[in-house]
Amino acid sequence: MIAFAVSKFINIFLMKIIFTFCFLTIAVHSFAQHDFIVLEKNGSNVRTYSEGIEINVETIYRQWFEGVITAVRHDSVFINGFPFHYKEIATIKRDRNKLNYEVDGTLLMAAGVGVVVLGAVNGWYRGDNAGTWYSGTSYITAGAFIIGGYLLKNARYKYYHLGKKYKLTYLSLDPNKK
């Protein structure tokens, strides 16, 4: 009985030592927080960009750059290792990927064209005059599908033009920086 109690005590003691060792190893190897930039709309946070996030930007020199933010430090954003001062960014383009805008828009436009073609084929098959192939509802339906598909395809990207409405703020987490 005493041997079992001693064995249990040793096992608990060893588990505490192993847990403490693992905790200290993780703490030593963990990295400090990095600086980041915040996209704000009228003073409220829209999106936060830090190291490792994909970004697509247009500079004030009208050049587009797309890539992963490799570092954010000293008021600069490094996109694929290429540095920019955060004030050189004029526009941020964000890809909306919750819906498949491109395919859904194309399908809507194809459905609109299909309504027009179906009306023509049915009118031709029945032998109707060409002026009676379409009704007002088929024009409205086809037009709504085509315009809706076009608008959906163009809504794939969201553009944040920096200026009056949107602005970038650089937040430094370095306590020694003034």
Overview of the molecule:
By secondary structure, the protein is α+β, with helices and mostly antiparallel strands. The chain folds into three domains: 1-30; 36-96 and 157-171, no CATH class; 101-154. It contains three helices and nine strands, in the order αβββββββααββ. It has helices at residues 2-29, 101-126, 136-154; strands at residues 36-41, 44-49, 54-59, 64-73, 76-79, 82-85, 89-95, 157-161, 166-171. The strands form two sheets. It has a six-stranded antiparallel β-sheet with strand order 6-5-4-3-7-8, with no helix packed on it. A three-stranded antiparallel β-sheet has the order 2-1-9, with no helix packed on it. The protein is elongated.
